[in-house]
């Protein structure tokens, strides 16, 4: 048969809250199935409260599901975490203030027990990969937000994990920095042979980056639909000009609306937008 | 203070010097201003016969600044060494007690903080007693410490150091506890994603993250350790330190008030020195974004 899935999620449900405390139970995820193939770039998109960050943490074994199975690289999620099978990037860079940029990137390598010489060499490669050569001895607070996020990507990739989990990594950045980092991420993805699961709020970002967009809906968090993104690789600035790109954006938007992701007030605007796009 | 430190790191050498000179000028200006205020209050008080309650302004209650400083260069007793020489020796002696007490207290305080941070049960069980320990006046504890440790072949000043440690450890424990818990939950998730155990998380994340809190406590403890050492000398009947000197000049206050004032001045300078040593250590150890420094 074909290759083994990097992530295989079956019937995952996650409830938060204890009834013993008197409060109600919040169902963050309900009966979620998802498969991520090697070299996939899968985006999870949906409104706040749809459980996309929870799903990402379930894959990373940072949250345990209430029921269902999570298999990462053919192992349990816990085994995969202990084997350091994935790197993770958060919305904020979460760099350690007291470490230089180079030492931040080397942190996972220290944990994995690499010797100093190998670490130094690897850090240099990673700085080059994220185009921060020469910034190794800086401290995080001396860098801009975009540069900090590049450091955190370098840190996540430093030990060459097969899977990269990204939780709204560019959400806190301005639009221009975001577009530049989108392009950079695609280049890194092409260079490193990794599989990416990417949480985002931005429809345009999801469509531009992904091979597959998973649309989620809230209360309870469910998968409302999956849109295969068949735009040609590599994606460039010209990709955003293609009619197919606009079509796919519309598809994702429809799915979001069907799933209750877009609220009533926005719908009229959406109709107008679609009408305008279709030249009516 | 740290924002200034960061700025200075970015400045060139001439600007850095100008900034240092500026700070020295400010410090000197404030000092001159305070002395002027002292003298002005004294002058007004004496000219008008000012009384604040039973407090009457006179050379006995409030000696001239120049008399206090001048007293340092008078013989401490007839044909004896200068007061400043006597106080210098006393200061070194007390500094030794306080430094040992400070190191002892800071180490113990930090260790207790780490142990308690690892168990909510221990924290709930022991924290009340740690708090209670600080409500007992040091004067009540000191004689007991002197009796316990005395006559066991240990030097006398060691019991004074233990008394100083008793005042030192508490702020360190409280702030270590707080600092170890002041960690971004995503930084913890990051460590979990590296399959780091709790020991690794402690030394690679929690302890470094707690450093600004630790140093805030060490600054309090640095001065508290001197107070502890001076007070500890009294029940230990140690004559060689500042505590002994204060007790001694207290008896002669009627005839030579400036001597006690001069001793207090020296004790204050010792406290400031301890504080500055901690600040210098903080500069070296704590390398943080300006907004993240306590």
Description of the structure:
The complex is a heterodimer of chains A (280) and B (294). By secondary structure, chain A is α/β, with parallel strands linked by helices. Chain A has nine helices and ten strands. A six-stranded mixed sheet of chain A has the order 6-7-8-3-9-10, with helices on both faces. Chain A has a four-stranded antiparallel sheet with strand order 2-1-4-5. In chain A, helix 3 crosses helix 4 (116-129), helix 3 (101-111) runs parallel beside helix 5 and helix 7 (203-209) packs across helix 8. Chain B is mainly alpha-helical. A two-stranded antiparallel sheet of chain B has the order 1-2. In chain B, a hairpin with a 2-residue loop joins strand 1 (51-52) and strand 2. Chain B is globular, with a radius of gyration of 23 Å. Mean pLDDT of chain B is 86; it is low at 1-8. The chains are: A alpha/beta (280), B mainly alpha (294).
Concise description?
The complex is a heterodimer of chains A (280) and B (294). Chain A is α/β, with parallel strands linked by helices and 280 residues long.
Shape of chain B: globular
Number of helices of chain B: 11
Using DSSP, what is the number of strands of chain B? Answer: 2
Alpha-beta content class of chain A: alpha/beta
Calculate the mean pLDDT score of chain A and round it.
85
Helical residue percent band of chain A: 25-40%
Oligomer: heterodimer
What's the end-to-end separation of chain B, in Å?
Answer: 10 Å
Low-pLDDT runs of 5+ residues of chain A are 263-270, 272-280
Q: What is the makeup of the main sheet of chain A? A: 6 strands, mixed
Side by side, the strands of the main sheet of chain A go 6-7-8-3-9-10
């Amino acid at each position: 048969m074909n290759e083994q899935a990097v992530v295989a999620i079956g019937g995952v449900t996650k409830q938060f809250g204890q009834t013993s405390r008197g409060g109600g139970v919040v169902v963050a995820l309900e009966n979620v199935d998802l498969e991520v193939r090697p070299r996939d770039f899968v985006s999870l998109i949906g409104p706040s409260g749809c459980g996309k960050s929870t799903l990402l943490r379930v894959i990373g074994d940072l949250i345990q599901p209430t029921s269902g199975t999570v298999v990462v690289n053919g192992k349990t999620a816990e085994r995969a975490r202990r084997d350091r099978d994935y790197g993770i990037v958060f919305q904020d860079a979460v760099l350690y203030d007291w470490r230089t940029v180079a030492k931040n990137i080397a942190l996972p390598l220290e944990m994995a027990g690499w010797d100093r010489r190998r670490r130094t060499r690897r850090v240099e490669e990673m700085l080059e990969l994220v185009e921060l050569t020469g910034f190794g001895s800086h401290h995080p607070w001396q860098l801009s937000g975009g540069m900090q996020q590049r450091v955190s990507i370098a840190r996540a990739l430093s030990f060459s994990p097969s899977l990269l989990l990204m939780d709204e990594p560019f959400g806190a950045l301005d639009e221009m920095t975001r577009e530049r980092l989108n392009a950079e991420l695609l280049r890194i993805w092409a260079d490193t042979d990794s599989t990416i699961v990417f949480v985002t709020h931005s429809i345009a970002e999801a469509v531009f980056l992904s091979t597959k967009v998973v649309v989620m809906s809230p209360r309870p968090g469910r998968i409302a639909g999956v849109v295969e993104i068949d735009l040609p690789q590599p994606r460039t600035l010209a990709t955003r000009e293609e009619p197919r790109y606009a079509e796919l954006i519309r598809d994702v938007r429809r799915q979001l609306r069907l799933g209750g992701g877009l609220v009533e007030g926005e719908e009229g605007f959406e109709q107008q937008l679609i009408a305008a796009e279709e030249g009516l | 203070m740290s924002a200034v430190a960061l700025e200075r790191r970015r400045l060139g050498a001439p600007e850095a010097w100008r900034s240092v000179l500026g700070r020295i000028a400010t410090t000197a200006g404030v000092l001159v201003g305070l002395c002027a205020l002292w003298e002005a209050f004294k002058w007004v008080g004496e000219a008008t016969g000012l009384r604040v309650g039973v407090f009457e302004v006179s050379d006995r209650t409030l000696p001239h600044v120049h008399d206090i400083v001048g007293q340092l260069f008078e013989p401490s007793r007839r044909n004896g060494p200068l007061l400043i020489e006597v106080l210098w020796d006393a200061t070194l002696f007390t500094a030794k007690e306080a430094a040992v007490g400070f190191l002892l207290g800071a180490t113990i305080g930090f260790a207790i903080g780490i142990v308690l941070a690892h168990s909510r049960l221990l924290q709930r069980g022991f924290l009340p007693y740690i708090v209670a320990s600080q409500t007992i006046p040091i004067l009540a504890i000191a004689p007991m410490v002197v009796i316990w440790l005395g006559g066991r072949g240990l030097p006398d000043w060691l019991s004074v150091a233990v008394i100083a440690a008793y005042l030192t450890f508490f702020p360190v424990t409280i702030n270590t506890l707080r600092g170890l818990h002041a960690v971004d939950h995503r930084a913890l998730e990051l460590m979990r994603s590296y399959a780091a155990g709790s020991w690794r998380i402690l030394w690679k994340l929690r302890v470094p993250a707690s450093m600004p809190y630790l140093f805030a406590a060490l600054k309090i403890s640095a001065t508290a350790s001197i107070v502890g050492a001076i007070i500890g000398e009294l029940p230990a009947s140690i004559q060689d330190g500042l505590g002994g000197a204060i007790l001694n000049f207290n008896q002669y206050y009627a005839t030579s008030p400036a001597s006690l004032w001069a001793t207090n001045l020296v004790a204050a300078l010792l406290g400031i020195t301890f504080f500055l040593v901690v600040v210098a250590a903080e500069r070296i150890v704590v390398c943080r974004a300006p907004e993240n420094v306590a």
